[in-house]
């Protein structure tokens, strides 16, 4: 029972990290119809930025804010220079964002060096609690709480606020929203930046969780992010959360019992979902 509890908590924490990455992809694809394969690069830059800011300020809060700011800046640059010229063309979007992903990865090596960098957990989140015979690591609980908090905030914004209404209306009918005097291009820019900030936040939280960061981590987690988006339903926020939990928990159990199949099993889940429910677990309107 202790082992199952630890594996489940570990899986939930991993799932929430993947959700933060997938949530940005969901926003960008579901609301803007943009395939952004450079998203993993923003995740990696968030991790590196948080470690750098933490070393500079010795404040975990400032490190998180610094990572988010990095995501916002890179998101703005990506949307303006990379995405804007290829709106409406998925093939060009795939090619140019894949190329930009490689550029972001190599730039990390140029700026921070090619070697792995250690990432430390803040003191107030270090250690664990003992509940009976179960050891619960504090930082993993923190990640789980952060994941659900981000989900709740963005669901509220999209469903209950004026900006959320404008975004959803813009997805359905851009011309109508534009006719009302709202610059839909700016709205979509803000959506893209929000997605980039989520990716950077995910990277920032991932750094202490894994203990080390490296330039290629963005590519690795981008694969899991796209698996989650496909399983959950392209453009569905609740679907991404549920799919991330499934992927995280499944990966945690498989990594312990059959390590060689930890990634393959999630690919199999995605294939099964595509065969029997091509629209994903949730429809995009979710």
Task: Outline the structure in words.
The chain is mostly helical and 286 residues long. The protein is 75% helix and 4% strand. The protein contains 11 helices and 4 strands; from the N terminus they run ααααβββααααβααα. It has helices at residues 2-32, 39-57, 60-83, 90-112, 138-160, 162-172, 174-179, 184-210, 217-232, 237-257, 264-276, and strands at residues 117-118, 128-131, 134-137, 212-213. Strands 1-4 form a two-stranded antiparallel ribbon. A two-stranded antiparallel ribbon has the order 2-3. Strand 2 and strand 3 form a beta hairpin. The mean pLDDT is 87.
List keywords for this structure.
two-stranded antiparallel ribbon; 286 residues; 4% strand; mainly alpha; 4 strands
Strand content: under 5%
Overall shape: it is globular
Unreliable stretches (pLDDT < 50, length at least 5) are none
Rounded to the nearest angstrom, the radius of gyration is: 19 Å
Report helical residue fraction: over 70%
Count of helical regions: 11
Class per helix and strand makeup: mainly alpha
Which sequence of strands runs across the widest sheet? 1-4
Main beta-sheet strand count, sense and barrel state: 2 strands, antiparallel
Query: Could you tell me the mean pLDDT?
Result: 87
**Tally of strands:** 4
């Amino acid at each position: 029972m202790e082992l199952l509890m630890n594996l489940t908590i570990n899986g939930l924490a991993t799932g929430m990290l993947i959700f933060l990455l997938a949530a940005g992809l969901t926003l960008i694809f579901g609301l803007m119809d943009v395939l952004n394969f450079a998203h993993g690069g923003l995740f990696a830059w968030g991790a590196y930025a948080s470690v750098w800011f933490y070393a500079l300020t010795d404040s975990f809060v400032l490190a998180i804010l610094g990572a988010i700011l990095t995501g916002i800046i890179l998101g703005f640059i990506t949307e303006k220079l990379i995405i804007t010229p290829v709106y409406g063309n998925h093939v060009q979007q795939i090619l140019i964002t894949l190329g930009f992903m490689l550029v972001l990865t190599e730039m990390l090596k140029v700026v921070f060096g090619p070697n792995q960098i250690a990432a430390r957990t803040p003191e107030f989140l270090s250690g664990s609690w003992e509940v009976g015979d179960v050891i619960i690591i504090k930082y993993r609980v923190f990640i789980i709480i952060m994941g659900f908090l981000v989900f709740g905030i963005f669901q509220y914004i999209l469903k209950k606020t004026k900006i959320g209404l404008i975004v959803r209306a813009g997805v359905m009918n851009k011309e109508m929203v534009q006719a009302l005097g709202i610059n839909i291009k700016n709205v979509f820019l803000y959506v893209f930046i929000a997605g980039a900030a989520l990716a950077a936040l995910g990277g920032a939280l991932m750094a202490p969780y894994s203990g080390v960061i490296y330039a290629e981590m963005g590519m690795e987690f981008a694969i899991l992010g796209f698996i989650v988006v496909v399983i959950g339903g392209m453009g569905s926020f609740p679907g991404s959360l549920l799919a991330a939990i499934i992927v995280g928990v499944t990966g945690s159990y498989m990594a312990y019992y059959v390590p060689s199949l930890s990634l393959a099993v999630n690919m199999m889940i995605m294939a099964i979902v595509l065969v029997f429910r091509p629209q994903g677990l949730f429809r995009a309107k979710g």
